[in-house]
Design goal:
Length: 105
């Protein structure tokens, strides 16, 4: 009986961890999209985030420097720090992330 309980707990932990590491979808239902233009300041490869010093997003956000989670790409594969970029900013309720990060010419 005890062994079965331990096995059940281990299976639950293993399943929850595999779901946490699964890639999140690039788009989600109900999202609002904005164009984000700015400069990459730094990146965190462990968290797959970029710190971007970005221009104002008309009707949504003033110019500022923020950390953005990146979906659909690894930040290590993106343009180097201090590059001017354009990306899609996805917003759902109080959650946000960027995708389609590309270097501006």
């Amino acid at each position: 009986m005890r062994r079965a309980a331990v096995v059940a707990i281990l299976l639950c932990v293993a399943c929850s961890r595999s779901q946490d590491t699964a890639p999140k979808p690039i788009s989600e239902r109900g999202e609002t999209l904005h164009t984000l233009k700015g400069t990459i300041v730094t990146r965190d490869t462990a968290e797959n985030t970029l710190r971007v010093d970005h221009e104002a997003i008309p009707g949504y956000m003033d110019a500022m420097t923020m950390d953005y989670s990146v979906r659909g790409a690894n930040v290590s594969d993106l343009p180097p720090d201090r590059s001017r970029i354009e990306a899609k900013l996805h917003v759902v309720d109080d959650r946000y992330w960027i995708s389609d990060v590309r270097k501006m010419e």
